[in-house]
Amino acid sequence: MPGAGDLPERYARILEDAGLDPSKDAFHGATDGEAWFGSGEPLEVTTPIDGAPLATVHQASKEDYERVVKATQDAFRAWRDTPAPERGDAVRAFGEALRENKRALGRLITLEMGKIVEEGEGEVQEAIDIADFSVGLSRQLYGKTMQSERHHHRMYEQWKPLGPIGIITAFNLPCAVWAWNSCIAAVCGDTMVWKPSEATPLTSIAMSKLANDVLQDHGHHGVMTLAVGDERIGQTIANDSRLPLVSATGSTRMGYAVGEAVAQRMGRSILELGGNNGVIVTPSADLDLAERAITFGAVGTAGQRCTTIRRLFAHEDIADEITDRLIATYEQVPIGNPLEEDTLMGPLISQDAVDEMMDAKRHIEKQGGRILTGGERLPELGANYCQPTIAEVTHDVPIVQDETFAPLLYVIRYEDLDEAIKWHNDVPQGLSSAIFTQNVLEAERFLGPNGSDCGIANVNIGTSGAEIGGAFGGEKETGGGREAGSDSWKQYMRRQTVTINYSDKMPLAQGIDFSVD
Ligand code: UN1
Fold first, then answer.
1. Which listed site, 188, 195, 231, 353, has its alpha carbon 20 to 30 Å from 172?
2. Tens digits of per-residue pLDDT, 58-87?
3. Is residue 493 helix, strand or coil?
4. Are residues 260 and 320 in the same domain?
5. Which residues line the pocket of ligand 1, CB cutoff 6 A?
């Protein structure tokens, strides 16, 4: 078990700044919002930067999980009865705490999952943004008034808190995705249990500490709880009928398992699963913009966002030019330690992830594709590093159907826009999509009913880096869920239709006469 003494000094400081005591031999991975515990198996946390051990986390045992869920149930009774703007006030204070700790949390994210600090801080900013959004929402949560067909009757709908909910998140956005769910759920009056990725428990502990300090100052605990664990905890959450909603982000395989289990018990799920996002670049496109957006979208977070650009459909007329520009840019991307300021691409989350990318490379070559740049491991930097890679393939090779969670971009040439849109849609996933064009007719074709079939469709913007104000999520095997902004909040509440008779008669709807005399 790694002890405090083994922790490199620079890493110890990052933990400390994020509120985690680096002199501790082990952290508790479960909280009911007040106490910290965890008597399950120890989880060794390492950094993908150089494999150094960071800490040991005691995961939630079955009994710990019970204690956590019990706390969310107890807290729900008081929390749902708290005026929504008062709940919003606690979320406002949480947002302020995030603002104060943005740099520290951003660096912890970098240390634990390997994205560059700029993107780590960007993720915390996303959490701040959703906190702000939720504060405003806490004074809205509007219901409609309907016109009753009956005399002196009033009809309206109201939205009520749903209950304790489950939140399952992935390693690649260890802070923001929980925040999308937790801030909205909190103002809606729900309490929650969070199961983070086993690769990023420290970020979840730091976030939960911050949230619960604030909530305790506001007189509440048990609103935001945590249960670190492996997929057994995930399965328990999916099957737990005390949790009427489960919001899960991760692989399609996980999504099928969670979606099925939740549906079996008539629960509600919000699934945000794999993406296989495409960008179409037409002859009229501003190639400077396209090049910048594609580089960020395909190389950012080392290709480990569910919104990462994986397929580039380039029109024959500009395919050589955009590809040559991208190759030149790719070959200059500074790869290395993500804590260092000039780095733009850090490690992948694990050596397995690099192995998967190398497998994909072999498949590309077997299927007649060509690596245009990259495609190699970078052992001199460490086991988890590789080059960002571009491969040219045809639209019909089987490998383009799969999401390889790595910086691997396929270039596919096309001649006819309608055909490119058809190819674009011809994959099982449907998260994010984009077109680069200066031609309004082409843009509208892409956005029209025969256009992109994804949950997100952008014009002259890449597929990643969505703002929180819109509903985030996608279609087909991406799972159909929508999180974050717009009216996503409705899923975290129970809709109730109310009809009040203030007459002295008993008229029936549909004009039915049911009088006995
Ligand atoms: C994810 O990778 O699961 O649009 C979400 C983006 C981020 C969210 C990514 N705002 O890239």
1. 188
2. 999 999 999 999 999 999 999 999 999 999
3. strand
4. no
5. 126, 172-173, 177, 249, 305-307, 464-466
